[in-house]
Amino acid sequence: MPTLHPLYAALALFSSVALVVGQGATQGTDPIDLVARAEGFFAKGAKEDAILMLWDAVEQLGSRTEQPASAAGLKAALGLLRANDSLHEERLATLLAQARAQTDLAMVYRGKKWFRSATEHLDLADQLDAKAGQKERAQLARANPTYVEPSISEPRGYSLLKRLETVRAEGPWREVGDTLECGSHPARTPWYEWTVDARHADCELALEFCSSDPKVGHDCSLLVGVDSGGASYQFIAAYYAESGRYDLVLYEHKDKQARLLGSALVGSLPAGDGFHRLSLRVNGTSLRAQLDAAPPVEVTVPAAPRGRFAIAVGIDNQDSAPITIRNFQLRPWPLPTEEEQRANRHAEAQKRIAEAIDGASLLIARKENEAAALRLRVARNDAARLLPGVLRDNLIKSIEEMLVRADPLDARCKKVGQEGVRALVGVADRYAAAGHLRAALHIVQQAARIDAEACAPRLQAAQQAVASLQKQEDR
Q: What CA–CA distance (Å, rounded) separates 266 from 268?
């Protein structure tokens, strides 16, 4: 049975090639415009680009056919595909057949009152054909499922913008979703401080901040080496309305004294959605501080900073408007090599798998078999992406044995998934034989949503084929 989030994660790990369509990606483009452009591409002989545009348009328009313009656009797109794509009907029939197979599994799970499992199968059916699962979804809604996944002492979500992660949070800080808000700060008063209860080594500390009113004075700063018993360092970005510029300053704080190490003035910077990126990099005794893409402030200090790290708001010489902070992150610096990143991902996957197996074992003991099965399928997807070897084989074997205990339908789900992959890969192969390698990749990616493990070799081959084609086109 599919679990959508892990499968999308699988696609992200497997995929190194973006789906490139003609003169640019079509995501975010008006679907009616895509239909008009596709017709022009057919006329110019750019058949594959046109097909991919129409697939995108059909996916967007299919969910809003109650709107007359969308219904007309959908009809036009399907007409163009029928007239210009000899594999169109076969592709649609294959997608519909696999959507119906997933809908049948959803119906069986609904009968078992495994409503979360039924919903996930219907979600996958919708990805393949928007209409195939509509009746079953209505039946599921009438069953009024109220699924709440049990907790098995799972680790809480980690965010540097959560008060639970701080050792000090002095000032009017307020957590709002994934952001942190800080109230206005009056001049000539101690700064507001958000100090994380963790210690850094060489690193890059970064966040994004936005003022409640970008035309009035405001500031935000990052600190490293906090609570170390030695020197700490603070990088401040302060906006002054009268000059319309940011004053960037880097201070050393030691023995209750502040010493200016470096500074710069930066004119008005484009901010897109209003947020600016502030970063402070520690690399041994070298510090590099930067606001957006402005020239960095770089200094060398006597000793490598070590200690806690913090955000601060407030300066002496002006009041500061409220600000919102997001994406507060600490990452090692220099960045890990590709090999080190692969090793880290491998270790993280092993940890997730072990936690999932332990949690599923507790759930099975408590007769909460659906929740156990859902976790085990996530673990199976993770295990399939481990490096080949005895550990991978043993983990997969343990997961399969537990799935047999948790869900008697698992074997049927695997069979449906494998058959679906074979059918869609067959269609993808015919597109590839016709010279439409990007279209083939698109279909293989759809197959991977059904069974990422079974589809992995073909997905890798499709990506490599598109990468080679892209290199040829770039010459």
A: 7
Query: What's the DSSP call for residue 357?
Result: H
Torsion sign across C-alpha atoms 464, 470, 473, 475? negative
Q: Which among 240, 265, 266, 236 has a CA at the least distance from the CA of 250?
A: 236
228 in helix, strand or coil? Answer: coil
User: Contact 306/226 with Cβ under 8 angstroms?
Assistant: no
Tokens of 378: 């996530």
pLDDT digits (tens, 9 = 90+) for 6-34: 333 333 333 333 333 333 444 447 889 99
Cα–Cα distance, 225 to 235 (Å, whole number): 12
- What Cα–Cα distance (Å) separates residue 163 from each residue in 156, 194, 234, 278, 306? 13, 9, 21, 21, 22
Structural element, H or E, at residue 461 = helix 452-474
Going by C-beta distance under 8 Å and a sequence separation of 6 or more, which residues neighbour residue 52? 19, 21, 22, 26, 438, 439, 442
Q: In this structure, which amino acid lies at residue 34?
A: L
Distance CA 161, CA 175 (A): 7
Tell me the per-residue pLDDT of 389-442, one tens digit each, with 9 for 90 and over: 898 899 999 999 999 999 999 999 999 999 999 999 999 999 999 999 999 999
Write the CA distances from 97 to 100, 122, 123, 138, 241, integer angstroms.
5, 13, 15, 20, 63
Query: Residues in the chain with pLDDT < 50?
Result: 1-28, 149, 153-156
SS3 295: coil
